[in-house]
Design goal:
The complex is a heterodimer of chains A (198) and B (464). Helix content of chain A is 32%, strand content 16%. With 198 residues, chain A is α/β, with parallel strands linked by helices. Chain A has a single domain, classed as Aconitase, domain 4. In chain A, strands 1-6-7-8 form a 4-stranded antiparallel β-sheet, covered by helices on one side. A 4-stranded parallel β-sheet of chain A has the order 2-3-4-5. In chain B, a hairpin with a 5-residue loop joins strand 1 and strand 2. In chain B, the strands form 5 sheets. Chain B has a 5-stranded parallel β-sheet with strand order 5-4-3-6-7, sandwiched between helices. By secondary structure, chain B is α/β, with parallel strands linked by helices. The chains are: A alpha/beta (198), B alpha/beta (464). The structure holds iron/sulfur cluster. Iron/sulfur cluster binds next to helix 4 and helix 12 of chain B.
């Protein structure tokens, strides 16, 4: 399923400076029972956002009215653990289009790219600057430029670059996905399949 | 050119290389379960396309299934709905389906190998991160997201850049009471949960050579917990012995032909890895975790480390200890335990039940402990009965439940209550993994058994 194109995003951000945030926290298993991709944003970080009575925990960043925006800035090794794509859906459905971290878990990163959330991996120093900038001014804006593979802290002009493989970049810029690509090489795949012994 | 085992298998599956992009990799076996597949099937329908190679696709229900009274309708309507969706999708697209109650039903990573679906030199994917289990057979096996499940259903291919390679070498002999689970938890504690990210592992050395297939599966299963996509072990006589004669294993001439190929599946002597790590078996003792990720593990005789010595940043480390209600320098031995879970795709195989039984035999379950003993499949369940293990368990005051993922991720009713401590043979101790507020300590079946009979964390070596 194609998603919105991603070219340049200018936005404020939510800071979540915790390491090893796993996908069980991003979306707990009990919310994986849907058979459609709908409504996962409501349960994003469910157990960190709400207490057992369903009331908001005021100290959690997503409940803090100071913060807003389409960018989530996470600590190191963001998205570890379970491969559930529901985690990336929840991030997307909540309204995020980009996650910035100094290090991403593999499968989560891949899942993000497949659903239209851009994972931006920056240096540890730059990640710290981002957290500091948001702490000083929660309304500070960050620009993520996919074409140029750059993140810019607009208040100071400080910039970092990020990697993305050329093919995935084209996909994100155009809102294409892998299945579109694979459908076009059907015959080649079929010929290959015939050579497989089992 | 010399190649590693991983190179050999990967390279023979590349359909084409995309310029500046990933490889298009052909998938031999696709395992499907009820949780990560419905949206993928929906996607196929929306695109108006079908499943390209339904004979290479196998479905089983496990994540949502109850572990008692499986003959009754599933109570939770959302779980029932997902199970039904899998059944309907399998029927519509012509996929083999082992639903609840089927004699081959069980946890996807347990039933795959049991039925010869998993073969050396194959590429195997599943919408579940512990697909890495199947690397034990010298297959490339890894977990994928739902978009990729849809991709594989639609094309039998996946688009991934080739990962880097890490060799993890453990030589020497394991001490008394030290199991494959301990080896894996030890490695993860050394490398941290992100130390393997971007890599595919090959496990080499005496320890893995000596291991049973069940043990190798446990180790490969946990590869994902150090961040690696997967891990593999070169196939040997034990591997061939294990797969021979199973339902989907090649037979007759096809077997002979396959054997010829399988025997070439080992890393060439002068092949190189991007990273090599060596451990000594003598340094490993029975392990237990004290924190909220699988990398926070220590030898059972040790104490919780100080924040300043931990691999995590101080905030993250303290948050974790707060959640567990542990303090720096706490001794692990002697801590009270409320729940014991034996099962999951990590430790839900026959060997794990044999190990558990070896300790509880002639002893009694501690009164205050709730124990869930959940076989990985009906085939495991049958072996437990045939080998007389069930009697040992019953005599010690334990009951056996029916197969499924159960308390590994608590999507069914097997939930550990908030604040309670659970020794679990599964693979993840994340906050709330076994139920909201639950506190999980990962360990081997031996450590779990020792806790189940004493009611507290106990060194199993004292009971062997
Ligand atoms: S047993 Fe646990 S880890 Fe294994 S497949 Fe089931 S839920 Fe996933």
């Amino acid at each position: 399923m194609a998603y919105d194109k991603f070219i340049i995003l200018k936005s404020t951000a939510f800071p979540l400076p915790i390491e090893n945030v796993d996908t069980d926290q991003i979306i707990p298993a009990r919310f994986l029972k849907a058979t459609e991709r709908k409504g996962f944003g409501d349960n994003l970080f469910r157990d960190w956002r709400y207490d057992s009575d369903g009331d908001q925990k005021s100290n959690f960043v997503l409940n803090n009215p100071k913060y807003s925006g389409k960018i989530l800035v996470g600590g190191k090794n963001f998205g570890s653990g379970s491969s559930r794509e529901h985690a990336a859906w929840a991030v997307y459905d909540f309204g995020f289009r980009c996650v910035i971290s100094s290090f991403f878990a593999d499968i989560f990163k891949n899942n993000c790219l497949n659903v239209g959330v851009l994972p931006v991996q920056v240096s540890e120093e730059f990640a710290k600057k981002v957290f500091d900038a948001i702490e000083i001014d929660p309304k500070t804006e960050i620009e993520v430029n996919l074409e140029e593979q750059k993140v810019i802290l607009l208040a100071t002009g400080e910039t970092d670059t990020f990697d993305i493989n050329g093919y995935k970049k084209e996909n994100m810029l155009n809102g294409f996905d892998d299945i579109d690509y694979l459908q076009n090489i059907n015959d080649e795949i079929k010929a290959f399949a015939e050579t497989r012994p089992f | 050119m010399s190649k590693t085992l991983f190179d050999k298998v990967w390279d023979t599956h590349v359909v084409r290389k995309v310029e500046n992009g990933p490889d298009v990799v052909f998938i031999d076996r696709h395992l499907v379960h009820e949780v990560t597949s419905p949206v993928a099937f929906l996607g196929l329908r929306n695109r108006g396309i079908g499943v390209k190679y339904p004979k290479k696709t196998f479905a089983t229900a496990d994540h949502n299934t109850p572990t008692i009274n499986q003959h009754l309708p599933v109570k939770d309507p959302l779980s029932a709905n997902q199970l039904k969706a899998l059944e309907d999708n399998a029927k519509e697209f012509g996929i083999l389906h082992w639903g609840l109650g089927h004699k081959k039903n069980g946890v996807v990573h347990v039933v795959g190998p049991e039925n010869g679906i998993v073969l050396p030199g194959a590429t195997i994917v599943c919408g579940d991160s512990h697909t890495s289990t199947h690397g034990a057979f010298g297959a490339i096996a890894f977990g994928i997201g739902t978009s990729e499940v849809e991709m594989v259903l639609a094309s039998q291919c996946i688009m991934q850049p080739k990962p880097k390679k890490i060799q993890i070498n453990v030589n020497g002999k394991l001490g008394k009471g030290v199991t494959p689970k301990d080896v894996a938890l030890f490695i993860i504690a050394q490398l941290t949960t992100s130390g393997g990210t971007g890599y595919f592992a090959e496990y080499t050395g005496d320890v893995f050579d000596d291991m049973t297939m069940e043990g190798r599966m446990t180790v490969c299963n946990l590869s994902i917990e150090m961040g690696a996509r997967g891990g593999m072990i070169a196939p040997d006589e034990k591997t061939f012995e294990y797969i021979k004669g199973r339902e989907f294993t090649p037979k007759g001439k096809d077997w002979d032909k396959a054997m010829k190929y399988w025997k070439t599946l080992k890393t060439d002597e002068d092949a190189t890895f991007d990273k090599v790590i060596n451990f000594d078996a003598a340094d490993i003792e029975p392990m237990i975790t004290y924190g909220t990720n699988p990398g926070m593990g220590i030898g059972i005789s040790q104490s919780v480390p100080k924040a300043k010595n931990a691999m995590e940043q101080e905030d993250t480390f303290n948050k974790s200890l707060d959640y567990m209600n542990f303090s720096e320098d706490d001794k692990m031995i002697g801590k009270k335990i409320d729940y014991v879970f034996l099962g999951s795709c990590t430790n839900g195989r026959i060997e794990d039940f044999r190990a558990f039984a070896s300790i509880v035999k002639g002893r009694k379950k501690a009164n205050h402990v709730t124990a869930w003993l959940v076989p990985g499949s009906h085939i495991v369940e049958d072996m437990i009965k045939e080998e007389g293990i069930l009697d040992i368990l019953n005599n010690a005051g334990f009951e056996l439940r029916q197969p499924g993922c159960s308390a590994c991720l608590a999507m069914n009713d097997d939930k550990v209550p908030a604040g309670k401590y659970s020794i679990s043979t599964s693979n993840r101790n994340f906050e709330g993994r076994q139920g909201p507020g639950s506190r999980t300590l990962l360990a081997s079946p031996l450590v779990a058994a020792a806790a189940a009979v004493t009611g507290k964390i106990t060194d199993p070596r004292e009971l062997i």
